[in-house]
Amino acid sequence: MTGPFRCAVLALALFSMLVADADGQTGTGPASVLQAVRARGQLRCGVSTGLPGFSTRTEAGRWVGFDVAYCRALAAAVLGDAERVEFVPGLIQQGLTALVAAEIDVLSRNATITLRRVAEMGLHPIGVYYFDGQGFLLRASAGVRALHQLDGRSICYQSGTTAEDNLKEIFGARRIAFTAVAAASFRAMIDTFIGGGCDAITADASTLAVIQITALPRPDDFVILRQHISKEPFGPLVRDGDDRWQEIARWTLMALIEAEELGVSSVNVEAMTASENPRIQRLLGVIPGLGEALGLDRDWARRIVAQVGNYEEIFQANLGMRGPLKLDRGLNELWTRGGLLFAFPLR
Ligand SMILES: N[C@@H](CCC(=O)N[C@@H](CS)C(=O)NCC(=O)O)C(=O)O
């Protein structure tokens, strides 16, 4: 190739890369997730098959819950409408593989973020929206109050979850003998336990609360041990390889937390646009720049809060005092109140 011609080809290649980058694409690769979602007019969101408080369908067929609310917030940000979500239910491994296969745009459920899930499957963690740990539930009459008293018991868990590996590893290391009873689904695990097929259930503490309150005949006949054997941080996951989509997903979560930090809720969001606090002005697009930096419009976060609420509203409605579970905020309290939730600066 002659000199000037080669230069022209290189310049053209460079130009097309720049254009592609500005559009959030990967050059020769497939269209970005943002473009695909906009072209479809719907966000595809993977959720669990049904875990009251986290993700369930009402009798009218509407998906509700904490995991569901995050996807509605993302849809409000990118599509302008929190209702434009197609929920795709599945077991944890099905959700992870659906994400890898690009059948969903985001997985929002009680998926624990682990190094191997992320690094080996080509996934990207967005942040943590629920800090949990693995616990044990059993009949109060069993008289078990501490982990070591589980020695010799049979323990149910759902296959394919982190609960399975943690149980085997930690009980092995502590030399606590047990009989493992694997269940293929959430319902099967509960039925096995109720039917006497195991002495205890091990799962995320939030799941155990769901089971105790919504699935067991007399909740007071059961106890959940205070000890946890792991850290289980849940957060949305997206595929690797689309930085723009990752940022949109991350800052959607941050906006929910930031709105709580600032006391901006679905009730007062319009009035708050008159606030003189520059953080509130930026969040609500009164001072423009944030949405635009993400490739969205200036009202992205205002819509999130108006249509879905802030983190506190979502937590209380689904998991906390305004729902059946009555879970404490605990670690999921704001950092300013002794918890772990912290929004990166939205500026
Ligand atoms: N946090 C764990 C467990 C997640 C999980 O799948 N939990 C079960 C309960 S033990 C569940 O949600 N089952 C209902 C479903 O998958 O639809 C993980 O990421 O592996």
CATH homologous superfamily heading of the domain at 33-131 and 234-253 and 313-332: Periplasmic binding protein-like II
Structural category: alpha/beta
Named at the architecture level, the CATH assignment of the domain at 33-131 and 234-253 and 313-332 is 3-Layer(aba) Sandwich
**DSSP helix count?**
14
Radius of gyration equals 23 Å
Bound molecules: glutathione
Tell me what portion of residues adopts beta-strand conformation: 15-25%
Strand order of the largest sheet: 10-9-11-8-12
Task: Determine and state the CATH class of the domain at 33-131 and 234-253 and 313-332.
Answer: Alpha Beta
Give a quick precis of the structure.
The chain is of the alpha/beta class and 347 residues long. It has 14 helices and 14 strands. The chain has helices at 3-22, 33-40, 66-79, 92-100, 115-121, 162-173, 186-194, 205-214, 243-262, 269-272, 278-283, 290-293, 300-307, 311-318; strands at residues 43-47, 56-57, 63-64, 85-89, 106-107, 123-125, 130-132, 134-139, 153-158, 178-183, 200-204, 222-224, 232-234, 237-239.
